[in-house]
Amino acid sequence: MPERYWLETLGCPKNQVDSEKLAGTLVAGGLEPADDPSRADVVVVNTCAFIEAARQESVDTVLALADGAKPGARLVVTGCMAERYGDELARALPEVDLVAPFGTPVLPPPAPSPVAFLGTARRGDPRPGRGAGTVGGAEPAAPVPSFDLLELPRPPTRAPWAYVKVAEGCDRSCGFCAIPSFRGPQRSRTADAVLAEVDGLASGDRPLAEVVLVAQDLASFGLDRSGGGTRPQRGAVRPLVELVRRVADRVPWVRLLYLYPSSLDDELVDAVLATGVPYFDLSLQHVSRPLLHRMRRWGEGDRFLDRIAAVRSAERGAAFRSSFIVGYPGETEEDHDRLLAWLAEARLDWAGFFPFSPEDGTPAAGLDGRVPDELVRERIDECTELQDAITATRRDELIGSTVQVLVDEPGRGRTYREAPEIDGVVELVGAAGGGAVGEVVSAEVVAAEGSDLVAELVPCGVAR
Ligand code: SF4
What we know:
Layout: E1 4-9, H1 13-28, E2 32-33, E3 42-47, H2 52-68, E4 74-79, H3 80-92, E5 98-100, E6 116-117, E7 161-165, E8 167-168, H4 179-183, E9 187-188, H5 191-201, E10 210-214, H6 239-248, E11 253-256, H7 266-274, E12 279-285, H8 289-294, H9 301-314, E13 319-326, H10 333-346, E14 350-355, H11 373-396, E15 402-409, E16 412-414, E17 426-429, E18 440-449, E19 452-457
Parallel strand pairs: 1-2, 1-3, 3-4, 4-5, 5-6, 7-10, 10-11, 12-13, 13-14, 17-19
Antiparallel strand pairs: 8-9, 15-16, 15-18, 16-17, 18-19
Helix pairs in contact: 6-7, 9-10, 10-11
């Protein structure tokens, strides 16, 4: 009987794509998925090391799965924590059979063995002319994992939507972010490789209805292949624009996550609007100019507001999401008040607020002006309370309107305003049975419940 595996994924959508690629390699290795972790012969945890809270969750998950594993099962830890803290993890977690950083095999030897840390074969920047230069401003040269999961095959998706990762690594140097130091500089896939993956994701009986493109710095997709930098060369079309157009030719809905704000130029806005999914996930982090300067990031609140207003004037129903760091070193009451005022004016559909976490090796870890934890919590509560009220109002405003809903599962779906697994959902009610999974149906919004909507199917042929 073939061995069975369980794959537990923590962290962001980018990690979820990695897990699907890992699943592809496990299946290719002769394993089958288990229906429960306690019945698996190999339990793999794909960890997240984004901030301290995410690391704690990863460790707690590993320990819980170790507790519930069947005798003789092998426990493997991979992902960002394995990459950043591999040897430490291997020492600290004797329950684990194997710590496997990016690009190393996750199948441990079948016999009981002392915990192993495979380590990562390092090499310099593989791109022409780049050598082993620096990434992230003053930070040391970023290592590059020995190979990426990007090009590995993955199984067809069971949901009518799928994340597709188009690049790995990042060429920016945000003061708080450790990603370039362990994911390396950006390496984009070719558009053809991305499209081949999109084509392979549809399962036999159901076409793929939505592709969600992800990368650490999505708008910079392809720029590393065409001269580098974070802007297209003068007169050139941004590679992401081309890619969005080509994916939109294949799939009804295309959604983009993580857009660095300076990249949101007219060309990219037009490309997004042309897909019929006017959803903009802007990575803003804050709105105070001095604080953004300390974060080594572009922009400030008024410029962001101008950009959002321009998009809304082109498409009134455009939906916006962003995330913000609260308590970055040096954040003053004035900065915080500025953020609150900005949120009230911007009226984003969705926003997330994260406490600053000093990451080893980042410039921000050494900055003065630490904000006390209690004050950070208070500020997050204020931001969350305000944003929750804005989100609820924006959801209420949809009551009575007819929306297009992609059915994710029987009785439940999303409009273009909701990214899968991130934003709210739409509960579908009505006599027509909820629509088939993967279908886009018309429905009238009859209620809003927090971030979720309740919508009644509009029977075919009935115009409202
Ligand atoms: S753009 Fe994103 S991934 Fe890149 S350094 Fe900044 S925060 Fe990190």
